[in-house]
Design brief:
Length: 786
């Protein structure tokens, strides 16, 4: 008998009993619950007769617009009774009078029903343009009420909100003059302090210099990003009807200095303001307003980190801790935040907008800007896919020189771009390889005829994936129609590397981000028709790659990357611990590297088995195999074992061993090879389908009742939605070999491994992840107890 049989009997009664480690950092559920209770509080304070909230004197509609915006961004349906009343109230307000109110009202209309309220959005945008100060030291700013364009004492808080309102209006299709944006940009650049910070107002002759604050520095960074984005030609141009990529980049020193100041001063416990500067230290005054600004800085600049600070995780943790647990509100100090309606609204805006899932991350490499030759390209691509994905998304940047594998895994897609030779350290290369092995996806392009980048990227792929060549993706590959059709005459070549159950690397040797950079959404910028079609095709290719890579299923921003090896690191891995070795062969025996560790993780969490998920790969003739009751095998190509290996495998199985396996992505060549090799080892072996009433498919052995499971077939697509593969309910299909009245081999010709390793894969015919996990539990528990 197998030497560890006694140990296996102990496994069946030993559950994980170790005490839980102290509370982890803030979780997605913590934030979801905080948002839900904050939403309930705001809705409970809405006045039932008119649908508004108590407004501040002199600002009718201001608090109401802020609360409505917070609820909409938090997911409150636009057609809910609360929103229906609130929007009706805001629509009947008199003509614009105050900058704060008009800007917030505009943002609400743009988020809620922009087509329905387009005339009101146009009215408000026109008023905000007229209200901008046009003369004097503060030309380009806004003050509380309309200055009729004359010299006035504008401030940066009003100016920030005016720009936010105009920004959203333009995204909704309303035209805003270039003169308005230029005056605003000139103003914000003129009042930035040498250290990169901003204060509440610009220093003028009759007023002392304002103290720098975190909230106003956030306002300045956001204002510069928005204004420059509306004025600059970008890093790609259309000249004489022709597209010119990799244009000379405009200076972004102002943003760089502002972000450096924010990184140095960052905290989530106070609105940063240096003590002793003019006798002012804000402390917690305006804290929630400041956090709303932090969210905007991170989102607009694509920064997950400010210096070394994970701004969203830290802010969310603080807000979850400080929320009133009974009523769900937040209350601050000063600046109106002693009113819980205002503080709660700002807190909800931070939590809801800041948690938008990351769809793609730009990978910074080298010491020049070669990695970012089209700085707005990825941003514009994300804006393009949001409507069809029906969710708000975000993007970010990560520095390959400082990032760990876990940092990379915060994003489902890494975008790697450049023109010059790609130079990565051995550690950076290893991180990329591990990133793909743990489910990540690399999307790369060579910019502007970058022969050096093309050559070095191809060399990198050979080095990282020696068993999978970079191949030209054929027309039938799902990536060509994963979301949008690409006009045949506009198709650009895409190359791919197949790894970890799917095409995990996609490479375009010509420009794509250049075309994304040129995109202006719904704004008409007068491009020739041929240029518009080229941009449209580039966006479609980018959207298809993102859809293929993610299956439009993005994880929560606070969800930590899964460890490569599941299990309890504090487990005493001695007697009574289950370890399952993987059999080595030449047919891709380790192509789904993390499948088995995750299977063992399911056994630990679902059943309570003590497991050792450290990888152990053995040849069938390795004496170590006899130490284990259960062994695992999978692959995706034909293979052959030697006569010696076959004989050793026969010994293992005849002595009580159990072999469990599946065909990666339902590969028929591997399935046929495994059946042949088992037959060669055991001439009496016959593979037969387990009957649907077999006890393995029941909960009899501490598993699950599985009368049916869901099978996904990637070859059959839903009409109009290429990502929706055909899913059918079937009786579970498992083949088995019996020896002396017991099951010695159980094999799934449909994929289980890739479902366990990478739930987003579109390429595998097999079980959905939940059913795959249940099948694993049933098979292993039956094997241990039969």
């Amino acid at each position: 008998m197998i030497r560890s049989l006694v140990g296996c009997l102990a496994i069946l009664v030993l559950l994980s009993t170790g005490a839980r480690i102290g509370r982890a950092d803030v979780t997605p559920d913590d934030v979801r619950n905080a948002i839900a209770t904050g939403v309930r509080y705001l809705k409970s304070q809405q006045l039932k007769d008119r649908g508004n909230w108590p407004d501040r004197v002199g600002y009718p509609g201001g608090v109401t617009a802020l609360c409505t915006l917070a609820l909409l961004e938090s997911g409150e349906p636009v057609n809910s009774p609360a929103m229906d009343k609130a929007l009706s109230y805001l629509r009947q307000l008199s003509d614009p009078q105050a900058v704060y109110v008009t800007a917030l009202q505009t943002m609400v209309f743009c988020v809620a029903e922009p087509k329905k309220d387009l005339l009101l959005i146009q009215r408000n945008a026109a008023w905000l343009e007229r209200a901008q100060i046009q003369d004097g030291d503060r030309a380009g700013a806004w003050t509380y009420f309309s200055s009729a364009g004359q010299a006035a004492r504008g401030d940066n808080s009003n100016s920030q909100f005016a720009l936010l309102g105009l920004h959203e209006a333009e995204l909704a299709g309303v035209s805003v003059s270039a003169a308005t944006w230029q005056r605003a940009l000139d103003y914000w650049l003129s009042c930035q302090r040498p250290d990169g910070s901003w204060g509440y107002y610009k220093s003028v002759q009759d007023q002392p210099q304002a103290a720098p604050t975190g909230s106003m520095t956030c306002a300045g960074i956001g204002a510069v990003v928005i204004s420059q984005g509306r004025l600059g030609e970008g890093d790609a141009r259309v000249v004489g009807g022709a597209i010119r990529c990799c244009a000379e980049q405009t200076d972004d020193d102002s943003l760089k200095r502002g972000l450096e100041w924010m990184g140095a001063k960052f905290t989530v416990n106070a609105n940063p303001s240096p003590a002793g500067f003019g006798g002012l230290s804000l402390g917690r005054s305006g804290l929630f307003y400041y956090l709303y600004g932090v969210e905007r800085v991170g989102r607009l600049t694509g920064r997950r980190f400010l210096a070394k600070h994970d701004w969203y995780r830290q802010g969310a943790e603080m807000l979850v801790q400080q929320q009133d647990k009974l009523t769900g509100f937040w209350r601050g100090e000063g600046s109106g935040e002693d009113n819980p309606l205002i503080a709660t609204s700002f807190a909800l805006l931070f939590l809801s907008k800041g948690r938008r899932p990351v769809a793609i991350t730009k990978l910074q490499h080298g010491y020049t800007n070669d990695w970012d030759l089209h700085r707005n390209g990825v941003h514009h691509l994300i804006r393009h896919v949001e409507p069809s994905w029906r969710q708000k998304l975000t993007w970010q940047t990560v520095d390959s020189r400082a990032a760990s594998v876990e940092d990379l895994l915060e994003s489902p897609v890494l975008f790697l771009s450049g023109r010059e030779a790609l130079e990565l350290s051995p550690a950076q290369k290893q991180n990329l390889k591990q990133y793909v092995a743990r489910g990540g996806f690399i999307f790369a392009e060579a910019c502007c005829g970058g022969e050096a980048f093309d050559r070095t990227f191809r060399q990198l792929m050979k080095e990282l994936f020696p068993d999978s060549a970079l191949r030209l993706l054929p027309p039938e590959h799902v990536i060509w129609f994963a979301q949008e059709r690409v006009a045949p005459e506009r198709i650009r070549p895409l190359y791919g590397v197949d790894a970890c159950c799917r095409t995990s690397v996609v490479y375009c040797p010509t420009d794509l981000s250049c075309l994304w950079e040129l995109s202006r959404g719904d704004r008409d910028v007068g491009y020739p028709e041929a240029v518009k079609e080229e941009i449209k095709a580039g966006l479609a290719i980018g959207a298809n790659v993102l859809a293929y890579a993610t299956n439009r299923q993005l994880k929560d921003k606070l969800e930590r990357p899964r460890r490569a090896v599941e299990g309890d690191p504090n487990e005493n891995l001695t007697r009574g611990v289950l370890m399952i070795p993987k059999l080595v062969h030449g047919g891709g025996s380790d192509e789904a590297t993390n499948a088995l560790p995750r299977m063992l993780g399911v056994l630990r969490t679902d059943v309570g088995l003590r497991v050792n998920a450290e990888p152990l790969q053995v040849s069938p003739d390795d004496p170590q195999l006899l130490d284990h009751t259960v062994a695992f095998v999978h692959g995706r190509r034909d293979f052959r074992w030697s006569d010696k290996q076959r004989k050793a495998l026969a010994v293992y199985l005849r002595r009580g061993g159990f072999l469990f396996g599946d065909a990666i992505c339902a590969n028929p060549q591997f399935a046929d090879a495994l059946r042949r090799e088992i037959k060669a080892a055991l001439p009496e072996a016959e593979f037969v389908r387990l009957p649907e009433n077999h006890p393995l498919f029941t909960s009899q052995y501490r598993g699950y009742d599985l009368p049916t499971v869901t099978l996904r077939d990637p070859q059959v697509r839903a009409v109009g939605d290429p990502l929706s593969t055909r899913q059918v309910q079937i009786k579970p299909l498992l083949e088995a070999v019996r020896l002396e009245g017991r099951l010695a081999v159980v094999f799934s010709p449909y994929d289980i491994s890739c479902a366990m390793e990478n739930a987003a894969s579109l390429d595998c015919k097999g079980y959905l992840p939940a059913d795959a996990a249940r099948l694993v539990v049933n098979i292993v528990m039956y094997a241990l107890q039969q």
